[in-house]
Amino acid sequence: MPGTLYDKVFDLHVVREIGEDQYQLLVGLHLFHEATSPQAFSMLSERELPVAYPERNVATADHVVPTADVARPFADPEAEAMLSAIEQNTARHGLRFFSPAQKANGIVHVLGPEKGLTQPGITLACGDSHTATHGAFGALAFGIGTTQLRDVLATQTVIMNRLRTRRIEINGELREGVTAKDVILHVIHVMGPNSGVGYALEFAGEVIDRMSMDERMTICNMVVEAGARIGYCNPDRTTFDYLKGREFAPQGEDWDAAVAWWSSLASDADASWDDVVVMDGSAIAPMVTWGVHLGQSVPVSGQVPGEDSADPVSSAALADAREFMGVEAGQPVQDIAVDVAFIGSCTNGRVSDFVEVAEALRRSGRRVVPGVRAIAVPGSVAVRDELVALGVDKVLVEAGFEFREAGCSMCIAMNPDRLVGREVAASSSNRNFKGRQGSPTGRTLIMSPISVAAAAVSGHVADPREVFPVAVPG
């Protein structure tokens, strides 16, 4: 029977049907970090249970790791306690740990793909909502809570509902200066921040087909902000080229067999989806959020919206967001000044993100304006090492950015990189709710890395196509 990738992979991992559309599902790979795992290991210890399949559980450290001073013990005792806990738990159970001590750590959603651990056709769970990132490879990847984390450690399974499938097909060509981050912000802007609830989102179409794996990971990373738990792309030659030769990818004859199997998992042309949405890639512009969730966004040339006469509840939410953000209806978003510029996170902390910014800064000669604190934080030690080898770090530093050690950094307030007071951040991360970046009154504007750079050198939200124009030959 023709099927979607979601249905094929889901069915392959069903252990048993429980009833009421719930299933016990085998977890092919469990990735975990220091922030959500200590309690799960404690629950395991209370029951004197071992980790059922140690080879399928892999750890790293990312959320609490400082990016300026990584000396141990950490200045924050809670951060030090969490890192000590994961060191002890992985050692006790014989689990693989990509640790800061080995200079092998990275954001879990950057590290998994770069190691070749993330592969098409697997189920992948992690105690982090942005686990959907790994769906870019044709995996069913989803975030889990601490109790489910315990269950995975003890049984290598979780209980899940079967989701409906929605295919989002983006055709045509993106205009100059429009990035994958703008594409997913546009999708959320058009469809709404709750549009994905109950769905697995399949991304397809000409625009997705032309994207690199880094770009596809950015797309899938943020399906959570549309209310979905799972997002994915079908595996293709781009997927296989990315994975070939990576540390944990199949080798030799196993590689050819893996590619053949991976290819068979792609959604069939005559598969049946519960919903299909078609979008025109050429209609997408650089996007920026102005409010307190990702649905509150506009094109960079747009204005802060006013009342919604058709929906009083929506109008009240808009008014609350405007008051918190200190903006007014009708105000051009480019009039919003910024205090902080942050490039990094599991959404945009990969090599290509920094290379694009460095090239724009080098080409333009623009520098971060006085009064703006700008930091660039690689998503893993491996990403950092590659950027240094390419000389990207020097370009960023010369332009006025601080080039940091690897970590989650300012994406989430679990380490020293935080907003202060009412600061406004131009951020390449994935969430902008109140208090997300550390200050309860701090304000976050989500945008692409190149848009963050444009804001950093302008002192306010700016159109990257105007700040970093590309010369047209002839």
What do these coordinates show?
- This protein is 33% helix and 18% strand.
- The relative contact order is 0.13.
- Strand 9 (164-171), helix 6 and strand 10 (199-204) form a beta-alpha-beta unit.
- It folds into 2 domains: 5-277, Aconitase, domain 3; 287-467, Aconitase, domain 3 (2-Layer Sandwich).
- It has a 5-stranded parallel beta sheet, sandwiched between helices.
- It has 16 helices and 19 strands.
- The mean pLDDT is 96.
- The protein has helices at 5-12, 38-46, 77-93, 108-115, 146-155, 180-191, 206-210, 213-221, 237-243, 252-264, 312-325, 351-364, 381-390, 392-398, 449-458, 464-467, and strands at 14-19, 22-26, 29-32, 57-60, 96-98, 123-126, 140-143, 157-161, 164-171, 199-204, 230-233, 275-280, 287-289, 297-299, 340-343, 373-376, 402-403, 424-427, 443-446.
- The protein starts with a helix and ends in a 7-residue tail after the last helix.
- It is an alpha/beta fold and 474 residues long.
